[in-house]
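Researcher: I'm preparing a figure for a lab meeting and need a structural model of a single chain. I don't have an experimental structure, so a prediction will have to do for now. The sequence is pasted below. Please return the structure as tokens so I can convert it later.
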Amino acid sequence: MAATPGRSSAQGMFSSLKFRDFRFLWIANLAASFAMQMQMVARGWLIYDMTSSPLALTWVMLSFMLPSLVFSLAGGVIADRMRKRSIMIFSQLLNTLATVFLALIIYSGDVTFWHFIYFGLFNGTILAMSMPARSSVTPEIVGRDHVVNAMALQSATFNLSRILGPALAGMLIAAFAAGDTTSTEGVGIVFFVIAGLYAVSVLGTAMLNYQGKPSHRDSGAFADIAEGFRYMKQQRIVLGLLVMGFVPMTFGFSITFLLPAFNADIIGGGPDDLGLLMTGAGIGALAGSLALARAGDIYGKGRVLFLMGYLWAIFVAAFALSETMLSAMLFGAVAGFCGAVMG
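Model: Understood. Here is the structure written out token by token.
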């Protein structure tokens, strides 16, 4: 049932959950977000323990980010030409199987740095191919009147996982390793847990009634990609929004990947401390996304976007200059708040 524009705030912070398909999508995204956040902690901890090199963390980040950049337009074309539900299920299933395979390698103790590079390339490609379909599903399920509330709730889901997922991963690594935090067996068990969460995401997506019918196009795939570039060139506002979304995400994402080095070299912490550092940023991000969900379709979004972007940069710099766990968590939380509102 459609609502009048601007009423999402009055109907409540969780109004979008009244849609059945959105509830299952929310559960699927919650499981996948927890898996991703736990994976970043477990992977980052093990890579830095193996290499003691921030550059190694950077290469793994690039192995994930570059395919996402290169194949994102192709993912949009695929989302237009295939059923979106099938794309989401198939991509998440591939991701689950790849995570199980990596977990087996880590648990056996035969893991090398290059395994993470290969996994990053595969994971980044799968994400690029499936993200346009996943991103376009929510507006089609809840409708235009609820889209701001639904997207804010999705952001809150992601940021809730940023609070609990890293802390849970750090504690599990320490617990399964029985005090030996260099143990690949402990990290391997955590990766099996992560694969289980990805499997829950597959099941939740499979429960959707929504199919997402493909559009009928006479043009070829390359023509559609070229049309996308022409549209971005003509619509300067769209191009500006893409740049403002791409730059903070790229540099902000690198901070998360480099946290294992910051944790070990500056804070001097273990895997549980690494989880707490990521949790601090997650707390602020969750507060920001819930505030946005409550506000609904706010006035002056452009000004808010610019303000949050500048504040985000300031507090990221303050985080980089932190020398204690408390100050790092505080500045990370404020940066997370600004990033969530901006996103």
